[in-house]
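hey can u check if this looks right to u? its 400 residues, i copy pasted from the old doc so theres a chance i mangled smth
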Amino acid sequence: MEVTLLGTGAPAGLPRPDCPCAACATALGPDARAATALLVDGALLLDLTPGAAFAAARAGHSLGGVRQVLLSHPHDGPPVEVPAGLPQPVRVPDGRELTLLTGHRVRAVAMDAGGTGYAVTGPDGRRLLYLPPGGAPAGLETATAESYDMVLADVVGRPNALGRLRAVGSVGPTTDVLAVHLDHDVPPGGELRRRLAAAGARAVPDGTTLVVGAYEDVPDVPRRTLVLGGARSGKSVEAERRLESFPDVLYVATGGTRGGDTEWAVRVAAHRERRPGSWRTSETTDLVPVLAADGPPVLIDCLSLWLTDVMDEVGAWDDAEWAGGGEKALRERVRELTEAVRCARRTVVAVSNEVGSGIVPATASGRRYRDELGRLNAAFAAECEQVLLIVAGQAMVLRG
């Protein structure tokens, strides 16, 4: 089964007309995208968009052989003119299945938010799933027997849709996940590719033709990632974003509850509200058993608070205790942690503060903490496939 992506953008396209934002200003050449539409084996058209016939011609195809046109979502703009000879577009009721004379079978998939998804099985038995913008399949409580060969979805706008599909086995290690309905909420180019790679997905230019089930060299999701940044840099948001397309994430909060501290309670509440409801939370600084256990991906936020707790335990703030064995005890705890990271079999994303670029602390204990956090970050980063530094909300890739 062969799929040609006549467009890969949001309904308004990218760049949006008359939009002055930076993402639209840089959406040029291969990063410019028409509204998403798919041509399957020249016989099935999923979503009719303005200029679809010209887009097909530019890709070396014709719409003359199209036998069925299916709509997944209503367009906000003016009605789209149906090219001469093309069947009238229709939307299939949820759950209904069509069988085309060409041997394709199409099943309408119910969505949790407006629109209709389509599961297409080709004459060769290959299977693809196409989802409308902003939608995720509804009613995915039970595991499926077989994963799709290709999934085309709004990965940026609804990353948790992938999480739901992964939870029931509809998206597996060999599924080619393609981001469509791309809008201006993520800068195109390198930043878009980086975010999609973290979700195990990719984007292709308009006009690309793909063979469903053919091997594609999609970047593997890094098993271990360290996200560094200063205060309010966006490091926690970046770390959470890297796992929002996966189900059953374990969020390890190392800061504790700090009873009576209302400002801290507000911070904790803000973090909880951002996280998907399916994530579980564990408040602990005992990270070695967490890393040693098998299980879903784990997000540790953050290592700097873990270090504070360990330095409390070993008496690092007192010069005499530090010299009398505190330093040695801290080194051993860091070694145990980094060894656990090296041996971890589950996906790990950890957050830590980068404090070495600011002013020199006025106290000896403050300078000791700064130095030890720098050493911890370096040791942890050495065990990670990917290391990011977040500056003003922008991710700089240091490794990976």
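Residues 319-343 form the longest helix (25 residues).
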